[in-house]
Amino acid sequence: MDLLENLNRQQSEAVSAGPGQTLVLAGPGSGKTRVLTRRIAYLIDQMGVRPYNILAVTFTNKAAREMGSRIEDLLGPNRLSGVWLGTFHSICARILRREAGSGLLPFDSNFVIFDADDQVSIVRQVIKDLNINDKIHRPTSLHAAISDAKNNMIGVKDYPARNYREEVVLRVYEQYEKALRANNAVDFDDLLLWTVRLLAETPQVRETYARKFEHVLVDEFQDTNMAQYEMLRHLASAHQNIFVVGDEDQSIYRWRGADYRNVLRFEKDYPGARKILLEQNYRSTQSVLDAARAVIDRNRHRTPKRLFTERGAGSKLIYYEAPDERAEAAYIIDAIRNQMSSGAAKGRDFAVMYRTNAQSRLIEEAFLHAGMPYRLVGAQRFYGRREVKDIIAFLRLVHNPADEVSLSRVINVPPRAIGAKTYETLISLARGADQKAADILADLGRSGSASLYWDKLGGRASAALANFGMMLAAWRALLVNGGSLPSLFDRILTDTRYREYIEDGSEEGRDRWENVDELRRLAFEYSEHGLDEFLENLALVSDQDTIRESDDAPTLLTLHAAKGLEFNQVFITGLDEGLLPHSRSLEDDEEMAEERRLFYVGITRAKNQVYLLRSEQRSLYGSFAYQDASRFLNDIPESLLQSQSPRASRAQRASAWDGADRWDSRSTWGQPEKEASRQSYRANVGSRAYSGPQPIQRSAPVIETQYKPMMRVSHNSWGEGIVLESKVEDGDEILKVHFESVGMKQLVASLAKLKII
Ligand code: ATP
Ligand code: MG
To answer: What keywords does the record list, in alphabetical order (predicted)?
Structure first.
């Protein structure tokens, strides 16, 4: 087929560009991913480049798979073999496995990749070992600090300790690294860090890969971080053929170190790069595009982009303000059900997007209640399940006996009389003898009571450990003797009697067993590839990878996970201040700009219809709080919106709110953006009328605040917290409290029943 067919002029120019550097900068839906895909096909078919010499980086494994099969459609089967096509993480893992035998890396090629849970559990252990107060230094925040450092290529040796906090981070960082090495493990950030170090510091390794990759291509370039950028630069250093596509306005991974200024860096590092702009959008209607543009135009320091569509005006965006979050979910169900039952739409046409994972629960419940199937995107649903993690831990132990995170997870699963105390004795014995726990287990398994550890651990504990050690040894033997992955899997299930353990006759038990069965099915798919690849793929699974294409059902996903995807109809839920934009962004301009980009990404996923939803009142964590409408709603011209908010709610608003003027004197949390007041939403905002099932007991107007910043308080379900801010609004004292258990919360003092402690 003509590889330039169905491309516009700029698109063809990019696809057929000569060697050198190319930067395609263009808005959503303008065909950037299409161009990248065609470019790979073009390189192979028209420019005679061998697939082996091509490296293409996508943002998710799913995107890589789709790109691969698209190229095969274009070129015919088997024309792509040898190409390196995958995410940064998977490409790094591949390089590191090849190079780990060389002695240049602190782990061997059997290394395991620890997932987010494993990483935090190591931090937790380190905190305990170092006697650090985990109330003041939360494990997740220490982990984030370490991850941040790694993304900026700052190792333990270079980590600054300029203040107390940094000193703590440094001490934890140091031990965390030790623990990873002792486990022959790497975390996600290590994959990049070590690859970049290897390329930067070992000229012959760099040369090998740089020579190999004659062409380097990258999708979603705006979301690369510093380390990724460095890696690309090294890999392209021999041939200097690098082709990147991206859109600064869609950069939404700042929290993972992404830096859209890499686009500027690219232009500076490659002054001869050709820059191609794409201006036609093929995805969305004009209304969708106009609304999206109105939102993103408010971000400063950006290059305005022209984007037109030939798809026509299309229908207005629908706005719905629900009295509470259940009504918000019910609205979604109704809208979808109506269209599906009339045959106007299919399940897969819809996507429901939210800012935080926690919001999905109620939406899921609504789908379940209505008996409607849905696809929940997110590794949590499957890979986060206890039973799935158990089995993976057994497999990881077989693969890498040094993996103590997995060992501690399953050493007593199902219960085999190995208590926490025994485990700790085992670990300290191992440390003392400069051995791995796995070695001691193996020794006990082999020698029984003749083992020199037997008495140290006590007979009863030793017997239990010896049994476990024998079991592990048998599994390893099975694998070493050429046993297949499925046979290992089944052997583990039989030996541990896992099914009896998990399937206890309850609904939940059945559900759990089904998950194990699903994992087993996956293991069968990998029988050709073996345990290494199976584990690697499990470790690098990303949210989008959990979308099952075959299911014809609405997709539920976070805005972050929606990147690069498209749907006929998109619901964006939770358009409340504090949620979207997220409360974390209210006091930081850069964060606020990123929230706006996130909203922009959401809107631009839609081909035909966008629904913007919010809820006047929300009880995310079991206590209710009023929400103001998201400031982003104000940016969309009214002419593009059609409101479907219930009448009752509007009437109440009128009575509870005596005029829009007062709005201006009200302040939102943090620093509200100074914007021309546009009234229809503003008038809605801040209504404190409530029509739900739990009437509010209003107390007499408060004038003085009862709570003061820095006071310690305690809440019935959230435990202790610190008051950060307190102010009087509408006669209510409104508090911002940071709870150790759930983080920042906004509360109405008269309802929250806080105790001062
Ligand atoms: P995003 O920024 O959201 O990742 P993108 O720029 O990568 O978007 P694509 O996903 O490549 O855009 O394209 C958007 C849609 O437009 C796809 O369905 C694609 O098939 C279609 N498309 C792109 N170019 C053309 C074209 N020249 N003719 C017809 N359809 C096109
Ligand atoms: Mg794309």
So the answer is: ATP-binding, DNA-binding, Helicase, Hydrolase, Isomerase, Nucleotide-binding
Q: What is the pLDDT of residues 303-341, one digit of tens each?
A: 778 789 999 999 999 999 998 888 999 999 999 999 999
Do both 337 and 373 map to the same domain?
Answer: yes
What is the value of pTM for the model shown?
A: 0.75
- How would you list the strands of the sheet with 21-26, edge to edge? 84-86, 54-57, 215-218, 242-246, 21-26, 274-278
Pocket test for ligand 1, best of 7, 12, 16, 33 (most atoms within 8 A of CB): 33
Distance of CA 447 to the CA centre of its chain: 46
Query: Under a CB-based contact definition with an 8 Å cutoff, are residues 84 and 213 in contact?
Result: yes
- Claim to verify: residue 448 and residue 332 sit in the same structural domain: no
Does the annotation place 31 within a ligand binding site? Answer: yes
* Residue 75 is assigned to a structural domain of this protein: yes
Residue minimizing CA distance to atom 16 of ligand 1: 282
Structure tokens at 31: 């065909």
Are residues 464 and 496 both part of a single domain?
A: yes
The string of DSSP codes covering 15-70 is: HT--SSEEEEEE-TTSSHHHHHHHHHHHHHHTS---GGGEEEE-SSHHHHHHHHHH
* Ligand 1 centroid, distance to 78 Cα (angstroms): 25
62 assigned binding-site residue: no
Distance from residue 214's CA to the centre of ligand 1 (Å): 26
- Do 443 and 567 share a structural domain? no
Cα of 567 from ligand 2 centre, angstroms: 13
As for how many domains the chain has, the answer is 5
Length of the chain: 757
- For residue 568, the domain's CATH number is 3.40.50.300
79 and 122 assigned to the same domain: no
Distance between CA atoms of residues 97 and 389, nearest Å: 23
Same domain as 209, residue 83: yes
Average confidence (pLDDT) per 10 residues, the chain, 757 residues: 92 96 96 97 96 95 91 92 93 93 88 86 91 87 91 90 92 95 92 95 96 97 93 97 96 85 94 95 97 93 84 95 92 96 94 88 85 78 80 94 90 91 92 91 93 91 95 94 93 94 80 82 83 84 66 91 95 94 88 95 97 85 71 95 69 35 29 29 26 31 67 81 78 76 74 79
Q: Whole domain around residue 634: which residue ranges?
A: 317-381+547-651
Give first-to-last CA distance, the chain, whole Å: 74
User: Domain boundary at 480, 510, 536, which?
Assistant: 536
Task: Measure 43 CA to ligand 1 centroid, in angstroms.
Answer: 20
Same domain, 524 and 389: yes
Task: Tell me whether residue 2 is in a domain.
Answer: no
Of 26, 14, 565, 29, the residue nearest 248 (C-alpha): 26
Pocket around ligand 1 at a 6 A CB cut-off: 6-8, 11, 26, 28-34, 247, 250, 282-283, 564, 566
Q: Does the structure's ipTM exceed the value 0.95?
A: yes
Query: Which residues are catalytically annotated?
Result: 32-33, 219-220, 250, 605
Asked if the structure places residue 582 within a domain, the reply is: yes
Specify the ligand 1 atom closest to the Cα of 565: 3
Residues 200 and 89 in one domain: yes
Q: Which residue among 23, 283, 307, 600 has the greatest number of ligand 1 atoms within 8 angstroms of its CB, and so is best to mutate?
A: 283
Known binding residue 27? Answer is yes
